Here is the input.
Amino acid sequence: PWFREIPREFIRYLQEGEVAQPLPAWFVEMAHYEWAELAVDVMDAARPAAEPAGDLLAGQPVLNPVLMNLAYQWPVNRIGPDYRPRKPAPVCLLVYRDDADKVRFVEINPVTSRLVTLLGEEALTGRQACLRVAAELQHPDPEQVVAHGRGLLEELRDCGALLGVRP
Here is the structure.
């Protein structure tokens, strides 16, 4: 168990800014992104009851309990040997473990991130959550947001980020 705490402590060390050498501006966020993969991989959570084929708008969507909804100022999911960003480019990511126990990463937009946050914080139906997002956006046609939200919720279920609806 102590071994799993080392990466989190390393991130805390980086965030405190006491590193001897200057690091790229995106380095701390990239380290957090890498830690998230390990955290989700070893996360222990009971799988809640869910009806996989339930109506995601009429019912209360059930989030995968092994999921992190993350937002970064830098495109951490694209940083690698051939790409080092020079300026911020915000990115939102869902990191979760699928039914085969494989860690998955899905890039989402801020509106989808907000929808996932609402579903995790409150017992809302998919429709209620979509209408809340529409109100926050001051969208002139909330039903258009609901229609788009239906497809989005289905995509999240298909990829394993949503398990279905509460029975």
